[in-house]
Each structure stands twice: as C-alpha cells, then as structure tokens.
Write a structure and sequence with these properties.
Protein name: Transcriptional regulator
Structural class: mainly alpha
Strand content: under 5%
Shape: elongated
Largest sheet: none
Order of helices and strands: HHHHHHH
CATH class of the largest domain: Mainly Alpha
CATH superfamily of the largest domain: lambda repressor-like DNA-binding domains
Organism: Billgrantia sulfidoxydans
Mean pLDDT: 83
Helix content: 55-70%
CATH architecture of the largest domain: Orthogonal Bundle
Low-confidence stretches: 81-87
Length: about 140
C-alpha cells in the first residue's frame, strides 16, 4: 500500500478514535486552532485525508498531540520502528518551582488563549532584543 494512503487511513482512524468526524472541514478547523504557523487550507488537509500528500514534520507533531497518538505511529503505523519527536522534560532541572507553576497554568489554558500569551511573550522578546541593540552592554545607559 502507498505510504500516503496508509497515512490517510491512520489519520482518519485517529480522528474517529478522538471523537472527530474525518472530514476536511473538521480537520482544517481543529488543526488551525492548535498550529501556530501559517494556517493550512481546506485543500491541503483534504490532500492529507485523501492520501495525496503527507504533512510536514512540525504539522505531524501537532496532529499527533491533538489526536493523542504518538507521531511515529501516526506517520508510520504501529510497526514503524522510527522515532519522531524530541525527548520531553530535558530542561526540567533548570526550571524553578515558580516557573513550573506558570508553565502548568499556561498549558492548562485553551489553545486560543495560549496563542495570545505566546504572542505577548514574543512581543516582549522583540522589544528586549531591539532595546539591547540600541543600548549595548557597557555603553553607560543600561
């Protein structure tokens, strides 16, 4: 069987198992609620469900997390001996208790609110970077 068609079957089965009807409109809406990049189109997700194309790795990760399956199982099937993803929790030792509480609260937010929080953080980071460029360390204005 073609790997794209096999993926489409696994995707549809995972959607059903998660309580979603495997239709392009449903997939487009639910995926774009969770994906922080450029939204996918109805035609793009239809191609995933019809077995015409495979999603990029970052999109596969979002699909797997949303549907509650392992990314490698979604992409390759249960027997696919490949490992996709990154180890989780590698940075836990460097995170303080207060930072963990903030992260837990953030992760408990609905996806739409997490996007807003992420945008605020990005705005602060951009402002900090531009401020650092205007006033480099040692210029007497820090």
């Amino acid at each position: 069987m073609n790997e794209k068609i096999a993926f489409a079957e696994r995707l549809a089965a995972a959607m059903r198992a998660a309580g979603y009807e495997p239709r392009p409109a449903v997939l487009e809406r639910e995926f774009n609620l969770r994906y922080w990049g450029k939204p996918v189109t109805l035609q793009g997700v239809r191609r995933w469900l019809c077995g015409e194309t495979l999603p990029q790795q970052e999109k596969l990760q979002v699909l797997a997390e949303w549907l509650g399956v392992e990314p490698q199982a979604l992409r390759f099937g249960e027997g696919g001996g490949y490992r996709i993803g990154e180890p989780r929790g590698a940075w836990d030792a460097s995170v303080s208790a207060e930072e963990r509480r903030v992260l837990q609260r953030y992760l408990a937010l609905p996806v739409a609110q997490r996007k807003v929080v992420a945008q605020v953080i990005e705005a602060f980071a951009r402002a900090e970077r531009s401020g650092a460029e205007e006033h480099p360390p040692g210029d007497g204005r820090s």
